[in-house]
Design brief:
signal, Glyco_hydro/deAcase_b/a-brl, four-stranded antiparallel beta sheet, 18 strands, Immunoglobulin-like
């Protein structure tokens, strides 16, 4: 494997545990560096009026797809992005992937025709129980076979769409194995890529997926995915009616991953009623304009940022995280008008949806 840029060298160093660059490896301008990151988008329903939390209107989706065409984006299969991350191969500038969760019928009737018309690939993550149960609004196995034959990549989303952190590793393993049996029976193969139901995961669950032979897994919090991230909890930007403005899309689509290492805490799981954790990370290289970095917890006001020197950043949050899913989004203006966007997911177990 060739390593042609400083970002590739940094990624390899992170993999093999080397934290410092050689003196001769002076970081070059990020705008000229090979891209080892990608914006991965997640959708659920298409054109299903009256369900704004999981639906995107067809006019909104059309604008986004047209923007990707006009803006010269490289819309790649998700599997190709994973392969690039795991080999250290550079991706094209402005790389994007499109994913869909839950296998609603509106993907086949509305979303996929719009994607196919523009030649864009997509990955559909399927939870098998709703399909087996014939629930209203979900695709059938015949429809899924037709989509797969038409070029849609099928991903694994478990069987019951369960809260896997709350249910525990063994229950999650049983759920995944049950779904794998159904994929094998109906589609002839088990998907290699997984999407965490509700975006909820933890270190033990990630280890379980590795042991089961999956290639990688997707989470569901905003952030740019990168080669130096865990390949079993990569972030995705969610879009629905309420979060699909033209301004937001134009900010997200060209975004870059902030090159970081030594993240604490490593896992997302917090104990109920515990204080907010000390969140911190180290920058892999000097980033111009770092004073403009801003971090926003989903449950509180803008966080305080402490620059400790030697590229170490600490994010201070006063309020404990509430039960359920939470996140921190950190943004920073970057080269060529492309913002850095760093996401961090947190989860306090034992809460309702």
């Amino acid at each position: 494997m060739r390593c042609r840029t400083i970002l590739c060298a940094l990624w390899l160093a992170a993999i093999f545990g080397h934290s410092a660059l050689a003196a001769s490896e002076k970081p070059r301008d990020l705008a000229a560096a090979d891209q080892l990151d990608a914006v991965i988008m997640i959708y659920h329903r298409f054109g299903e009026d009256g369900i704004p939390l999981t639906n995107i209107r067809t006019d909104q989706f059309k604008f986004q797809l047209d923007e990707l065409v006009a803006g010269g984006y490289s819309v790649l299969p998700l599997s190709e992005i994973f392969s690039a991350f795991q080999s250290g191969r550079a991706l094209p500038q402005k790389t994007v992937a499109i994913t869909i969760d839950d296998a609603y019928q509106s993907f086949a009737t509305t979303g996929w025709p719009m994607l196919k018309d523009r030649g864009f690939p997509a990955t559909l993550f399927v939870a098998t129980d709703p399909v087996d149960q014939g629930l209203p609004g979900y695709l059938t196995w015949d429809a899924l076979r037709a989509l797969a034959a038409d070029g849609v990549a099928i991903g694994h989303h478990g069987a019951a769409h369960m809260h896997m952190v709350d249910e525990g590793v063994e229950a999650a393993r049983a759920d995944i194995l049950r779904a794998s049996d159904r994929f094998r029976e109906e589609l002839g193969a088990v998907p290699e890529l997984f999407a965490w139901p509700y975006g909820e995961y933890g270190p033990d669950l990630e280890s379980m997926l590795r042991e089961m032979g999956f290639k990688g897994a997707m989470a569901q919090y905003s952030g740019v995915a990168a080669a130096w991230d865990s390949q079993f909890s990569l972030p995705r930007f969610p879009f629905n009616e309420n979060y699909a403005t033209e301004e937001r899309f134009r900010l997200i689509a060209p975004a870059r991953a902030l090159p970081i290492s030594d993240v604490v805490p490593r896992g997302p799981i917090l104990q109920p009623d515990s204080p907010a954790p000390a969140y911190g990370f180290s920058l892999m290289m000097d980033i111009p304009g770092l004073s403009a970095l801003a971090c926003y917890p989903s449950h509180s006001q803008q966080a305080r940022i402490e620059n400790l020197g030697n590229r170490r950043i600490e994010v201070r949050i006063d309020e404990p995280f509430p039960p359920g899913r939470s996140r921190i989004n950190c943004t920073l203006p970057g080269p060529e008008g492309r913002w850095f966007w760093l996401g961090k997911f947190f989860y306090v177990p034992g809460s309702p949806d």
